[in-house]
Amino acid sequence: MILAPVWRTRFFAAGAAIVAVWLAIDIAHGRFVWPSAIAGLLALFLLARAQPLPLGHLALIVVSAGYIVGNRGFAQISLSPRLPLLPAELALLLAGGLLLVQSAWRHDLPLRRDPLNIAIFAWIVLGTFRVAFDVRTFGFMALRDFALVYYAAFFYLGQDLARDARSTRVFLTVVAFSCALVLPLFLLFERFPDFFFNVLSFRGNPIIYFKGDLAGTFIAVGAVLFWLRFESGRRLWNAALALLLAGAVVAMNNRASLLALLVATGWLAVRGRWRFAVTQAVAGVVAIILILSVATALRISWEKTPVFSLYERVVSIADPAGRRAYRGEDTHYKGDNNLYRLVWWRAVIDETLDGNPYLGLGFGHDLAERFVREYYPENSEEFNVRSPHNVLLTIFARMGAVGLLLFLTLIAFVTRQTWHAIPHGLAHAAPWCLVWAMLVSACLGVVLEGPMGAVVFWTTLGLAHARLSESEIRLDAPPPDLPAS
To answer: If we measure between CA atoms, which residue out of 437, 435, 440 comes closest to residue 465?
Structure first.
């Protein structure tokens, strides 16, 4: 029997009235859990109807932009002080739940049968097995450290994002412009910190709070993405913005972002897209000549110029033990910084080899305790950093040689796919360059251990892999001719 439209309207109206009375009673008694949940679901429904992108894809785009622009400030935002559901976890819950429902409807699995999917899935399974034992010993700290692994689930959400061409274009565009926006916001953050901490805040936490190495890495990513946009559309403002962002990376006192830019540029050059490398080199030489000429005219020692600072930063990359003396105003501590990392890395390796070299020391284990005893033997203050500024060593310490081997296998597959994908246009080259820039930065800083870098990295990796797998590009096919300059 089919109800008449008038009766359907009456039944819905009656149900809505009952729900409205129930919610009104809850609100009157100060209970906001169900009212907030239903209001949120209604808002999501209206949002899904008001714009063309799938709701799960929109969540990934918004949260990625938030982490790029807001950085650790955005990472602290929680909808409810009683329920610390942070942006990454909220996006994972929403987009992941929708993906599971859609996969069941399509009668397929989010996991695909290819080497990269299987390697990441095996890595997640190993981490889950490891944390199941660690949580009994370390409690919440084990779950906190386990974020290094469960953020990899965004890889599968990124694969689903690639199903929709419009979502892919919007994601890459939003990421590019978000990276470009980091530069002016970072300069303002450095100049007016009180405004960001005291005015532009939510529940006492700043909405924008930059982590220096991540800000530099995203600026480097923006430089590469806008150059690729220039190669695709030949709009000069894209090239100008790319050079501006690249110049900002060179000027920043951050070696991880500089190395990230060099590696991404190197990938482009090795695979035939050498114009960005040449343009940067020419612009750099011209800038150095101008700076030194002005310094000579004003009788300023070259050691007081930005050229000397850049020279010492580059040299310090090849000085892991920090044996060299650095004299620059902004680089005098680089030797100590290198020694700091080297001592910590050795301490982590030795402790893991002594403890459990195969499955690691576990999630929740304090990886800084042995380092602090060696590097700060007389320091009584609390040391809050938990990761040794190298994702490979973090994985080895947490998951042992087995976990590290799986992750290195993942990197091997990424290397192979990058080699074949970069010559095939913006949509293929851009995400792989982003992946490599963040991966390099993760080997010198805390990038993939937190959501600020991990969400963008894993989502983009899933997108890049799916686009390469689903396109007509064969891994053994020659690349098309690149457009003439």
So the answer is: 435
**Within the chain, what is the greatest distance between any pair of CA atoms?**
95
Decide: helix, strand or coil at residue 205.
Answer: strand
| Locus of tokens 């009375």 | 21
Is this prediction's pTM over 0.90?
no
Kindly state the tokens that stand for 90: 């909220």
Angle of the 165-191 helix axis to the 451-470 helix axis, nearest 10: 150
Task: For residues 462 and 161, give the distance between their C-alpha atoms in angstroms, rounded to a whole number.
Answer: 8
pLDDT in tens, 211-250: 888 999 999 999 999 999 999 888 999 999 999 999 999 9
* CA atoms of 120 and 149, how far apart (whole Å): 9
Whether pLDDT at 34 is above 70: no
3-state secondary structure of 473: coil
Bridge partners of 206, per DSSP, are 201
**pLDDT confidence of residue 368:** 85
Neighbours of 300 (CB within 10 A): 13
* Confidence tier at 69 by pLDDT (50, 70, 90): very high
Q: Report the alpha-carbon distance of residue 417 to residue 208 in Å, rounded.
A: 35
Tokens of 14: 């009656």
Which pair of tokens denotes residue 315? 């040299």
C-alpha–C-alpha distance, residues 156 and 60, integer Å: 12
Coil/strand/helix, residue 323? coil
The rounded radius of gyration (Å) of the Cα atoms in the chain is: 25
For residue 426, the model assigns a pLDDT of 75
Nearest in space to 154 (alpha carbons), one of 406, 464, 475, 444:
464
From residue 466, how far is each of 156, 161, 201, 473, 474 by CA, in Å? Answer: 9, 9, 37, 12, 13
Contact, 424 vs 132, CB < 8 A? Answer: no
pLDDT in tens, 161-197: 999 989 999 999 999 999 999 999 999 999 999 999 8
Q: How far apart are CA 248 and CA 259, in angstroms?
A: 13
The pLDDT assigned to 482 comes to: 38
Indicate the SS3 state at residue 377: coil
Tokens linked to 212: 């220096």
Backbone angles phi, psi at 414, to 5 degrees: -65, -40
Q: What percent of the chain has pLDDT over 90?
A: 51
Place of tokens 């284990």: 365
- Find the Cα–Cα–Cα–Cα dihedral 102, 104, 110, 113, rounded to 10°: -140
CB-based contact 53:44 (threshold 8 Å): no
**Across 31-35, 176-180, 243-247, 319-323, least confident range:** 31-35
Residue 334, pLDDT > 80, answer no
DSSP 52: S
pLDDT on residue 50: 64
Phi, psi of 423, rounded to the nearest 5 degrees: -70, -5
